[in-house]
Design brief:
The complex is a heterodimer of chains A (about 290) and B (about 325). Chain A is mainly alpha-helical. Chain A has twelve helices and no strands. Chain A is globular, with a radius of gyration of 24 Å. A two-stranded antiparallel ribbon of chain B has the order 1-2. In chain B, a hairpin with a 6-residue loop joins strand 1 and strand 2. Classes of the chains: A mainly alpha (about 290), B mainly alpha (about 325).
Chain lengths: ~290, ~325
Amino acid sequence: MTERGALLPSNLPARRRIGTIFYIILLCAALAGVVLLAVLLADVFRQGISWLNLRFLTSFPSRFPQQAGIKAALWGTVWLVGLTALFAIPVGIGAAIYLEEYARRNWINTLIEINIANLAGTPSIVYGILGLSIFVRWLGLGRSVLSGALTMSLLVLPVTIIASREALRAVPNSIRQAAFALGATRWQTVRAHVLPAALPGILTGVILALSRAIGETAPLIMIGALTYVAFVPSGPMDAFTALPIQIFNWSSRPQKEFYGLAAAGIIVLLGVLLTMNAAAIWIRYRSQRNLRW
Amino acid sequence: MIRAEVDLASDPVPSISFASLRQRRPRWHEKAIQTALFLCALVSVVTTAEIIWILAAETWHFFRQVPVASFLFGTQWSPMFLPRSFGVLPLVCGTGLVVVGAALVSIPLGLGSGIFLSEYASGRLRGILKPVLEILAGIPTVVYGYFALTFVTPLLTGFFPSTQVFNAASAAIVVGIMVLPMIASMCDDALRAVPQSLRHAGYAMGATKFEVATQVVLPGALSGVLASFVLAIARAIGETMAVALAAGATPKLTLNPIESIQTMTAYIVQVSLGDTPAGSIGYLTIYAVGMLLFLITLVLNLAGNRILRRFHEVYE
């Protein structure tokens, strides 16, 4: 390092030119993401927009492309995400509070932390195998929306925990110390001061975790979410299908008409996800504006 | 003086006896909440334990019928047809082909984007690029599969007419696009964690911006950058829907990217879509392949997270 630093060549114009070329290469790399997103969206819209209408949203799947729709898939996704939120949010936030506010540095807490980091990187299909073995077979819940939601909860739990921990960590220590100084217990401090301050960040993380649950396909295929479902689930033990499964099913058919249906399904799916993303960004923006410290 | 003492004593508020402060009353309420929160955290450990237990138990059943060596080193994978053969190498080869292709796409683009975001982009440009990357990262994998099938493959066929309808290359390209945002944002974080003083030192030595970026900042963030590559590769290995849709279902030992192949994940999906009876040898294969997949990604994730932690310790 010192040698190189001492021997910087003196031909500055040439070095600047290399810098400019490097800048242009980097700019292209950075813009590649924008271009790819634009191409992907254009491709989907070109093929799907003509199939997207009210009938598409309110019809059940059919072998005839003209009559097929996503009613069952849409309601299946609503059920799935609702139940997943019910399980994953309390457990995820609870775990995050424990790890940030209570845990001391000892081997079991270190183990939990390493374990969460690894679970976040475990392939989703492995969660599918887990769900199939534990919920569908061992607990006998069958191929129900409840099995799907439990599997999905385990899948999004690490993401929820990691995001919630970051939000809790961002709360300054002075707030905790002030509460302790007034004689509050740890839980009183957390409930009345830390948690409200961290709420916008936690909410953002939760929304992003749930949008992951909406788009995830592989675990649902593993636990056997049916692809041909001509009814809306009326309870947690009902069979179900979900939007990404319906899209997968249509995409894997040889007939080209179904590609259009798949594209229309993707537009709906991306619409839902972008709305959730926008909500998360809006919450983050608002909370940054109202920051009191 | 005396007057003040009397006032204090008659005031009910400061009548705290210091003995009671020191005395620790058991707070059952607090204890119960702490235990409940601990149990929440324990759910994740139980999840891992269950994953390992289930995969290990069923893989054990599998290996009672199929020798370990013929699974790991066999070159023929045909568990559903007679004569059955359980050599996993074709699936590993298929996964490898997709992962190498994805790395070729995502590492240069991701690292380039990361350097650009951290060292060059103005605040406004950053404000556009970051959300775009976030959206790209949030697009479901099944959508990428559709994109591979209806856009990338026809494009490839234009360049290489012998491209098959299902091929490793188009799956590799979309998997590369999929992990690009992850590499970009992790590299961005790593580069931004390098202290500003190092950059200033570089400029003071008369280095240009390019020289500071590549010879000071990048080496300073090297472990963080490497960690992003390792974690992205782990993610590409586990990627399922895009390869299930676009890469095909023909397990074979080939290095030709425009041929139809099958990855480990796509095989698991194929079996679960069919009606293989539970407990049969064909059904047990998904656990054996799943175990292999889990172990590979576990090793990569452990390594990646370890590098990342060490990196954080350097600058924090």
